[in-house]
Design brief:
Blueprint (H helix, E strand, L loop, with lengths): L1 E7 L7 H11 L3 E5 L10 H5 L5 E5 L7 E5 L3 E3 L13 E6 L4 E6 L13 H20 L4 E6 L12 H4 L7 H14 L2 E2 H5 L8 E2 L6 H4 L2 E2 L2 E5 L7 E6 L15 E5 L2
Parallel strand pairs: 1-2, 7-8
Antiparallel strand pairs: 1-14, 2-4, 3-4, 5-6, 6-7, 8-12, 9-12, 10-11, 13-14
Helix pairs in contact: 3-5
The structure holds one DNA strand.
InterPro entries: AP_endonuc_1 (IPR004808), AP_endonuclease_F1_BS (IPR020847), Endo/exonu/phosph_ase_sf (IPR036691), Endo/exonuclease/phosphatase (IPR005135), ExoIII-like (IPR037493)
Family: Belongs to the DNA repair enzymes AP/ExoA family.
Cofactor: Mg(2+)
DNA sequence: ATGGTAGGAGCCCTA
């Protein structure tokens, strides 16, 4: 059995103390980070190594994006793909000794206007997810787990107001269609919603909303999916809402799951 | 219809 967590950290260097606190308190076997905003060589690996996280597979760039997989189980680099040819560090994969492959994604946020004719970034987001769909269709993933900040909240109960967010990037029908097509192409099972099927569930609250806890205008942007052959092994999903209230928090909180593999 | 906050780089971009 192992546990896996995904967390958009919004600067791994600034929030090194939060990462070490989380690793100490929760002790996931694998932690997938997004928005590290750091070249790989400047990620504070020694602090993580001191807590037993001896392995890291990462892709980075200065200032933007960046994905890393920290692990206290041995992992090897399983490559990356430049979805939508953006030249961004938004995907990396690692392989455990038991053959399970972990994909860590940071899907583009997509800008403010949900129209690719007037907002290039929205088109890039749709293209990115369409290429994920094509890759999953071609690869037919098995013994695989995919996690990350997908920047799309697919279900009505993944947002604070379905009606008010229908034209807000992250919950528009075209984005949801793209995401569900990618999920379907790989046969991926949404482990978080398999375990927590009912009710409002969020992993992100904007920095711009003070009083985030009371207002609770959240969205579920962070996901853990499993290939269909191992979906039954996934269980014990959690979303650590309380961490949004930590000092100098990320605007995202960790999502966790366990796998009996 | 608007503005609200945060991080990194470096006087503006992205989220």
């Amino acid at each position: 059995m192992f546990t896996i967590a995904t967390w958009n950290i919004n600067s791994v260097r600034l929030r090194e103390p939060l990462v070490t606190r989380f690793l100490s308190e929760e002790g996931p076997d694998i932690l997938c980070l997004q928005e590290c905003k750091s070249p790989v060589e400047k990620i504070p690996v020694e602090a993580f190594r001191a807590l037993g996280y001896r392995w890291m597979v990462a892709r980075g760039q200065k200032g933007y994006n960046g994905v890393a997989i920290l692990s206290r189980l041995p992992i090897e680099d399983a490559g990356d793909r430049d979805y939508a040819s953006l030249g961004h560090a938004r995907h990396v994969a690692a392989r455990l000794e038991n053959g399970v492959v972990i994909h860590n994604f940071y899907v583009p946020a997509g800008g403010d206007v949900p129209d690719r004719e007037v907002n290039v970034k929205f088109g890039q987001k749709l293209d990115f997810v369409a290429e994920m769909r094509d890759a999953f269709h071609a690869d037919n993933p098995t013994r695989s787990i995919m996690v990350g900040d997908l920047n799309i909240a697919p279900r009505e109960d993944d947002v604070w107001s379905h009606k008010q967010l229908l034209k807000v990037v992250s919950h528009t029908p075209v984005e949801v269609d793209h995401l569900l097509s990618a999920q379907d192409a790989g046969g991926w099972v949404d482990i978080t919603r398999k375990d927590i099927p009912d009710g409002q569930l969020y992993s992100w609250w904007s920095y711009r909303s003070p009083d985030w806890d009371v207002a609770d205008k959240g969205r579920r942007l962070d996901h853990i999916w499993a290939s269909p052959d191992i979906a039954n092994a996934g269980h014990a999903s959690r979303v650590l809402r309380g961490m949004r209230g930590w000092e100098r928090p990320s605007d995202h909180v960790p999502v966790l799951a366990s796998f009996d593999l």
